[in-house]
Design brief:
Radius of gyration: 27 Å
Largest sheet: 8 strands, mixed
CATH topology of the largest domain: Rossmann fold
Structural class: alpha/beta
Strand content: 15-25%
CATH architecture of the largest domain: 3-Layer(aba) Sandwich
CATH superfamily of the largest domain: P-loop containing nucleotide triphosphate hydrolases
Distance between the termini: 71 Å
Number of helices: 16
Strand order of the largest sheet: 8-14-13-15-16-12-17-18
Number of domains: 3
Bound molecules: adenosine-5'-triphosphate, magnesium ion
């Protein structure tokens, strides 16, 4: 329908009434140098740290370094067309990301722009990527467990909601897999999972997303990706952007888990930006603030007090080591910032002991207190037995003839090691873990050959579903194991062990 000229005139007059005419102040600067994703800008006054700057061609960046007369701007877009001499404008706004329920089930970049082709994200709000961590008064003690479904973690290094636990290990030792498995295990819990990939290979990110989509509850996950080939600015803001998205749920009284894969790559990006903006290099050429940028990021993970809604944000940052060197700069920094570390060992990984957790070097500094009491009782002296076994094993390798007691310890230790193995993307329920620990600690598995122990472990969940169907749900609900259930369960386990020993176990219990 053609527009009536009278309507058009009225609309134009109305628009003119509300439009401010006349001179307008504009913060305008000039690009002095540009290269490798960083621009040095002169002539811009009144710029804040992290303020978004807009180039004449529409590209954006943010101010990272505010030296007198010269601003170091890190680009958020590929900037092929930006040249020295171009105009730059201050926007007055700091870098922010969309937050809200609409992000659930989505794959986005660190600015919340969709990468999954499912259309724009309907944000509930935009919040800055840098936000203050909750204060001491606003926090509560970490008391609720995070069930990761990974036997070695849940039994020996239990995590609590609000904890920060570092996953650290050499290249390709199963770090990402461990973190993704912990996210998959939340498919039946009330936790929301956020996976932040910083500088990762596209194939690795694709595998992680596929695993979450096929095995986990992707509708309660958010994936934030800043690939290795993206602008350094995007990689730099990714962990902070993920934290802001996760805090939305924490502040609503919900529970969230954030995995940051990985902070070594983030530190390398930070170093690159610092060197390009000519900040003085320190140890290993990292600038002096590399500890601070990670500390202020991870401090945002917290368990909130009842007055603040009681929500929690658990963080699993990942760091890569070189030849197992935990005392390198970034791993030591992160170990001292977090509440414990899970160390993955390349030698164990290559021997086929997966997850390749080094039991001697790993520790959980707060989560142990939150471990489900029934699992703690079932695991009993597992840690001690296993540590003694590892020592004895080295000792007896030189050919000594072990006496009876030592032989028993070696037998038990080898079975413990077998039960701590777990294939990827196969999280166990609390009930499976309790039954596994009860069986190994009661010595039921001692007479079995190791191959049969592996079978026992693999078939246990199906066995419980068939022969003790109410046990998993009762345990999940009450967290208690009463005497009759305990006795019935031990009978079921003993019968299964006998059938495995004499080869009559059904292929699929
Ligand atoms: N528990 C497991 N069982 C079987 N295979 C596993 C297990 N954990 C990891 N893997 C396999 O080991 C390989 C390396 O794992 P992953 O990519 O998680 O290691 P990473 O330490 O994150 O590597 P990168 O240093 O490249 O990031 C993958 O092919 C993965 O499938
Ligand atoms: Mg990885």
């Amino acid at each position: 329908m053609p527009l009536d000229p009278a309507d058009w005139i009225t609309a134009t007059k109305d628009a003119l009434k509300t439009t401010a005419l006349g001179p307008r102040a504009e913060h305008r600067g000039r690009v002095e140098e540009i290269g490798d994703g960083v621009a040095m800008i002169s002539g811009l006054r009144d710029v804040r740290l992290d303020e978004v700057l807009r180039f004449a061609g529409g590209q954006t960046g943010f101010a990272r370094v505010l030296d007198p007369g010269l601003i170091g701007c890190v680009l958020l877009d590929a900037a092929m067309d930006v040249q020295a001499g171009d105009a730059v404008f201050g926007t007055g706004e700091v870098v922010g990301v969309p937050v809200g329920e609409a992000l659930l089930g989505r794959v986005v970049d660190p600015l919340g722009r969709p990468l999954d082709g499912k259309g724009p994200v309907e944000a509930e709000a935009h919040l800055p990527i840098e936000r203050p961590a909750p204060s001491i008064i606003e926090r509560d003690l970490v008391t609720q467990p995070v069930q990761t479904g990974i036997v070695v973690v849940d039994t020996l290094f239990a995590l609590g909601r609000g904890q920060r636990e570092l996953i650290v290990g050499d290249h390709s030792t199963g770090k990402t897999t461990l973190a993704i498995d912990a996210m998959i295990a939340q498919a039946h819990s009330d936790m929301i999972c956020i996976y932040v990939a910083v500088g990762q290979k596209t194939s690795s990110v694709r595998r992680a997303i596929d695993a979450l989509q096929s095995q986990g509850n992707f509708a309660r996950c958010i994936v934030v990706v800043a690939g290795a080939s993206e602008a350094p600015g995007l990689q730099w803001i990714a962990p902070y952007a993920g934290m802001t998205m996760a805090e939305y749920f924490r502040d609503k009284g919900q529970h969230a888990l954030i995995v940051i894969d990985d902070l070594s790559k983030h530190a390398a990006t930070h170093r690159e930006i610092a060197l390009l903006t000519r900040q003085s290099p320190g140890r290993e050429a990292y600038p002096g603030d590399v500890f601070y940028i990670h500390a202020r990021l991870l401090e945002r993970a917290a368990k909130l007090s009842k007055e603040r809604g009681g929500g929690s944000l658990t963080a699993l940052p990942i760091a890569e080591t070189d030849s197992g060197n935990l005392s390198a700069y970034i791993p030591t920094n992160l170990i001292s910032i977090t509440d414990g570390q899970i160390v993955l060992d390349a030698a164990l990984f290559h021997q086929g002991q997966k997850p390749a957790v080094d039991v001697g070097l790993s520790v959980s500094r707060v989560g142990g207190k939150t471990q489900a009491p029934v699992l703690r009782r079932a695991a009993g002296t597992l840690r001690l037995d296993y540590a003694q076994f590892l020592e004895l094993e080295v000792f007896t390798r030189f050919g000594g003839m072990p006496d009876g007691r030592v032989r028993d310890q070696l037998t038990r230790g080898a079975r413990i090691r077998e039960t701590l193995r777990q294939s990827q993307h196969a999280p166990l329920r609390l009930a499976d873990e309790v039954a596994l620990m009860l069986a190994v600690q009661a010595g039921l598995l001692d007479p079995l050959p190791l191959a049969a122990v592996a079978q026992f472990r693999a078939k246990l969940p199906a066995l419980l579903d068939r022969d003790a169907p109410e046990f998993p749900s009762v345990l999940a609900k009450t967290g208690e194991l009463d005497d009759t259930t305990h006795k019935d369960l031990m009978d079921v386990l003993a019968r299964f062990v006998t059938s495995l020993a004499d080869g009559t176990a059904p292929a699929n219990p």
